[in-house]
Specification:
The chain is α/β, with parallel strands linked by helices and 747 residues long. It has 5 domains: 2-189 and 365-381, Glycogen Phosphorylase B (Rossmann fold, 3-Layer(aba) Sandwich), CATH 3.40.50.2000; 204-358, Rossmann fold; 410-467, no CATH class; 475-599, Immunoglobulins (Immunoglobulin-like); 603-744. The protein has 19 helices and 34 strands. The chain has a 7-stranded parallel β-sheet, with helices on both faces. Strands 25-26-29-28-27-30-31 form a 7-stranded mixed β-barrel. The chain is globular, with a radius of gyration of 30 Å. It starts with a strand and ends with a strand. Keywords: Glycosyltransferase, Transferase. Residues 382-402 are annotated as: Disordered.
Length: 747
C-alpha cells in the first residue's frame, strides 16, 4: 500500500513529528510506499533525519526569498481550517489551495491527517479511493468544543480515527461520537535505541521536555530539593528549552541547588543523554501520551511519573517498571524519588523490567497493526462501495507545488522543471546537494538571471563555486571509554582503505594522525584514541583519504556517559592520579571536535556551596603531596592576591572557604575576576581548580551559580552615589572549565 501523511510542519521539531516519522519509517521498512506532505517548509533541512525511501513534499515554502512568501493569498485567512484550531492563524487561502490540490492529485491508498484542523481538510477533500485516517495526537480535553462540533459534522468520511491512548479513545467515542468512523488507540512508537542501555551507575535523575508550565518542572525541582540534602551525590538534569527557563533558573538559585540541579538545554538526540541517568522523571500535569517515558524505559531507566489522567498509567506498571505518583502531591513525589535513590536493588529490578516491557511500543509492531487495520477497511469497502458526499469548496489558483527534488536526488513531478533543467549549468546544480535544499522558485529566478545577464563568466564562476562547496563530511559515532580514551566509528562508504583520522589543534595547528581500520561490516572504519594520545587543547576532527582533500567529520552519535559520572579516583581521594580525558562534542556549525585534558596535578571540584558570607568549595586532589593553601589571583594587569587555608573533610577531600568580604576589600575596579589555585607548603608551584572530568562542554550555560550580594559601606565619603553600589560575588567556570570568582560593584 501507499501511505500519505499530511502534517503541519515536518521541518520543525515536536512529538507529532517524531511519532509520524517513526511510524512512516517502520512502514517503508515493511515494504510500503510512504510520502509525507508538510504543509509548511520554513527551513532548508528537516530537524530529524528522514529515511531516503520516504518522499518528503513541501506544499508551501515560506523560506526567505521564496515565491510563496510574496503570494497575496498567504495573507488571506484560511476558509478550511476553523478558527478554533490552535494554529488557525498560520493557515491561509494559499495553504487551503495547496492542501486541496495535493489531496486531489495523490494516488495514495491511505491518507493520514495528523492534527484536528488538517483532519477536517482530509475529511472534506480526501480522495474517494483512499482510506481516510485521522490521527489525534492531543487529548480530547485539549480540543476546543467548537472544533469538536466541526469534527462531528465532518468526520463521516473518515474511516479510522486513532488516539494515542485507550482512555482517550473511550473519551472520543463517548463524548464525540461520529457515525461510520471507527475509533481505535494506536500508541506512539519508539524505535529500538542505537546505544546500549544505561548501567545505572551514574547517580543522575533525567527529565526532558519543553520548559513549559504544563510540564510542572517547578514541582519536580521542589520535590528534589526536599531530598537533595540527604543525597548530595545525586543530581537532577532537565533537558529542554522554553519560556519557563528564567523562572526555573531563579527557583534553583533560591533553593541553593545550583550544584545539583542543572538546566541542560535542548538536545536533538536524547538517547545518549538518557543513558547518563539511573532514574527518569516526569512531572507533567497533563500528557497526551508520554513518548519520553517510553524512550527512557527502552534505555533501561525506571520512571517516576505523575499519574496524569491519560498517558503514563497506560505505559508504567506501578511498582513493576516504574512508580506513579498522585497529581499535585510534592511529598509523594519526593518520597518516590527517595525510594529509588536509596535502594540500588529495587532500582535495578525496575530498570530491567522497564527495558523488557517497553518493547511493546516498537514501531514495527505498531506499524503492522496500523497497516492491517487500513487494509481491512479497503477489503470491507470493496470496489462498489460509495462514500458520503464530498464537501466542496471553491479553490482558485495554482495546483499543489512540490519540492524540486525528493530525498536521494530523485526528481519529483514539477511543471516546467524539465525545461529549466535543459540548461546545463542549472542541471548540474540540480544534481548537487545544494539543489536538494532549493525550491522551484529558486531555479526559476536563477534561470531568469542567466538569461538577463547572458551567463556572464563571473556569475557562472560564483554559481559553480557554490554548487561545488563541500557539504557535511562523513558521519562518525563517538564513545568515551572507561579509561577516558575515545572510540570513533566513521561511516566510510566510498572511502578507500588507508584513510586516517586527522586531529588538528585549533590554536597551535599541531596535527595528530591515526590510521582507520576497516570493519567487517564493510561500512565503518574505526580507530581508538588512547587517553594520552593528544596534548591538552581543542581539536577539530577530519578524515584524511589516501588521495584528495581532508573532510570535517560530522557527529551522528556522541556517547559521553562515562564522563557524566564525574572524576573517580583510582587510589582513593588523595591518590596521585593524573588527569587524561577526551570530551567529544558537536561544534556550533555541526562538526566534531575533541576537548582533551592532560594534567599531572589537578584539583577536581566536587561541589560548591554559597552562603551570605562565603563560597565553600570541595575538591579532590589529583597529584603528589598535599596542598595547604588556596591562592586567588586577580586576572589582568592589576596584580593582586588573596590567600586562604585548605581544610580536610572527613572523606579526605579538600575544602576551601573564600570569604567574599575579603575579596571585596581587595577590589580596585568595578569588575574583577579572581582565579583559584592550590599551593603546597614545600613548593611555589600552583595548580588550578576546575571541573575537567565532566560531559558538559560549555559549563557557563549549565552551572549557573547565584550571586552573593554585599552592600558597600560608603564610610566617610561626602558624595552620595546613586544608585548605591551593590557588590555582587559569584563563582563560575571559565571557557577552560577552571574555577574563578567574579566581583562586580556596578549598579
Amino acid at each position: 500500500m501507499k501511505f500519505a501523511f499530511l502534517i503541519h510542519n515536518m521541518y520543525g521539531v515536536g512529538g507529532t513529528n517524531r511519532a509520524v516519522l517513526n511510524l512512516a519509517t517502520a512502514l517503508v521498512g515493511q515494504g510500503h510506499d510512504v510520502e509525507i506532505a508538510s504543509v509548511f517548509r520554513r527551513t532548508d533541512q528537516p530537524m530529524f533525519d528522514i529515511d531516503d525511501r520516504i518522499a518528503l513534499v513541501a506544499l508551501v515554502d515560506t523560506r526567505p526569498r521564496r515565491p510563496d512568501r510574496a503570494d497575496p493569498q498567504l495573507r488571506e485567512p484560511s476558509l478550511l481550517v476553523p478558527k478554533s484550531e490552535e494554529f488557525h492563524t498560520q493557515y491561509s487561502r494559499l495553504t487551503d489551495e495547496r492542501m486541496i490540490g495535493y489531496l486531489r492529485s495523490t494516488s495514495a491508498d491511505v491518507v493520514v491527517g495528523t492534527r484536528p484542523g488538517i483532519n477536517l481538510v482530509v475529511a472534506r477533500h480526501g480522495p474517494d479511493h483512499a482510506v481516510l485516517v485521522a490521527q489525534e495526537h492531543m487529548t480530547q480535553d485539549l480540543i476546543d468544543d467548537a472544533l469538536k462540533e466541526e469534527i462531528r459534522l465532518s468526520y463521516d468520511r473518515i474511516d479510522l480515527a486513532f488516539t494515542v491512548t485507550e482512555a482517550d479513545a473511550a473519551a472520543f467515542r463517548s463524548g464525540n461520537p461520529v457515525p461510520h468512523t471507527r475509533v481505535e488507540a494506536l500508541p506512539n512508537s519508539v524505535p529500538q535505541p542505537t546505544v546500549p542501555p544505561t548501567d545505572g551507575s551514574n547517580r543522575i535523575v533525567v527529565t526532558a521536555g519543553r520548559l513549559d508550565p504544563i510540564k510542572r518542572y517547578d514541582r519536580l525541582i521542589a520535590a528534589f530539593a526536599r531530598i537533595a540534602g540527604d543525597h548530595p551525590d545525586w543530581k537532577l538534569r532537565i533537558y529542554g528549552d522554553g519560556p519557563q527557563r528564567p523562572a526555573l533558573t531563579a527557583q534553583i538559585r533560591e533553593l541553593g541547588l545550583s550544584d545539583q540541579v542543572q538546566l541542560m538545554g535542548r538536545r536533538e538526540d536524547m538517547s545518549t543523554e538518557w543513558v547518563k541517568g539511573s532514574i527518569a522523571a516526569v512531572s507533567s500535569e497533563r500528557e497526551s501520551f508520554g513518548m519520553t517515558i517510553v524512550e527512557a524505559m527502552r534505555l533501561g531507566l525506571p520512571v517516576v511519573s505523575t499519574d496524569c489522567p491519560v498517558g503514563p498509567r497506560e505505559i508504567i506498571q506501578h511498582g513493576v517498571d516504574g512508580l506513579l505518583v498522585p497529581m499535585d502531591d510534592i511529598n509523594a513525589y519526593a518520597s518516590a524519588l527517595r525510594t529509588l535513590m536509596s535502594d540500588d536493588d529495587l532500582r535495578a529490578r525496575l530498570a530491567k523490567l522497564a527495558l523488557v516491557n517497553a518493547a511493546r511500543f516498537d514501531p514495527d509492531t505498531l506499524a503492522e497493526s496500523f497497516a492491517q487495520q487500513c487494509a481491512a477497511v479497503l477489503a470491507e469497502r470493496g470496489p462498489a462501495t460509495g462514500r458520503p458526499p464530498r464537501v466542496t469548496r471553491s479553490a482558485k489558483g495554482p495546483r499543489t507545488g512540490r519540492s524540486v527534488l525528493a530525498r536521494g536526488g530523485e526528481v519529483v513531478r514539477e511543471p516546467g522543471l524539465a525545461r529549466l533543467l535543459g540548461d546545463p549549468l542549472l542541471r548540474g546544480i540540480a544534481g548537487s546537494d545544494l539543489a536538494r535544499r532549493a525550491s522551484m522558485g529558486a531555479l526559476v529566478r536563477l534561470s531568469r538571471i542567466r538569461q538577463a545577464r547572458a551567463t556572464s563568466a563571473r556569475l557562472q564562476k560564483a554559481i559553480r563555486r557554490r554548487a561545488a562547496a563541500p557539504g557535511a563530511g562523513p558521519k562518525v559515532n563517538c564513545q568515551v571509554l572507561p579509561d577516558h580514551g575515545l572510540s570513533l566509528h566513521v561511516n566510510a562508504s566510498g572511502l578507500a582503505a588507508g584513510a586516517h583520522l586527522l586531529l588538528r589543534d585549533r590554536d597551535s595547528g599541531q596535527k595528530v594522525r591515526m590510521p582507520l581500520e576497516p570493519q567487517d561490516d564493510g561500512i565503518y572504519q574505526s580507530v581508538v584514541l588512547p587517553a594520552d594520545a593528544l596534548p591538552e587543547g581543542r581539536w577539530n576532527a577530519y578524515v584524511q583519504p589516501v588521495t584528495g582533500a581532508r573532510q570535517r567529520l560530522t557527529p551522528d552519535r556522541i556517547d559521553t556517559r562515562v564522563l557524566a559520572g564525574g572524576y573517580q579516583p583510582v587510589d582513593g581521594p588523595s591518590g596521585a592520579n593524573p588527569i587524561r580525558a577526551h570530551l567529544p562534542y558537536r561544534t556550533a556549525d555541526g562538526f566534531l571536535a575533541v576537548r582533551s585534558w592532560v594534567r599531572e596535578e589537578h584539583a577536581e571540584v566536587r561541589r560548591i556551596a554559597l552562603s551570605g558570607e562565603r563560597v565553600s568549595i570541595e575538591a579532590v586532589w589529583c597529584g603528589s603531596g598535599t596542598p595547604d593553601r588556596a591562592v586567588l589571583h586577580r586576572r589582568g594587569h592589576r596584580e593582586g592576591m588573596v590567600s586562604v587555608p585548605v581544610l580536610r573533610t572527613r572523606s579526605g577531600h579538600l575544602r576551601i572557604d573564600v570569604a567574599v568580604d575579603e575579596l571585596a576589600a581587595h577590589r580596585l575596579g568595578r569588575y574583577e575576576d579572581w582565579d583559584l589555585w592550590l599551593r603546597r607548603a614545600d613548593t611555589d608551584r600552583e595548580v588550578r581548580l576546575g571541573l575537567l572530568v565532566d560531559d558538559v562542554v560549555d559549563k557557563k550555560l549549565v552551572y549557573n551559580y547565584p550571586e552573593i550580594y554585599l552592600v558597600d559601606d560608603p564610610g566617610l565619603e561626602l558624595v552620595e552615589e546613586y544608585p548605591a553600589p551593590l557588590l555582587r560575588v559569584r563563582p563560575y567556570y571559565t571557557r577552560d572549565s577552571e574555577l574563578s570568582i567574579v566581583v562586580v560593584d556596578r549598579p
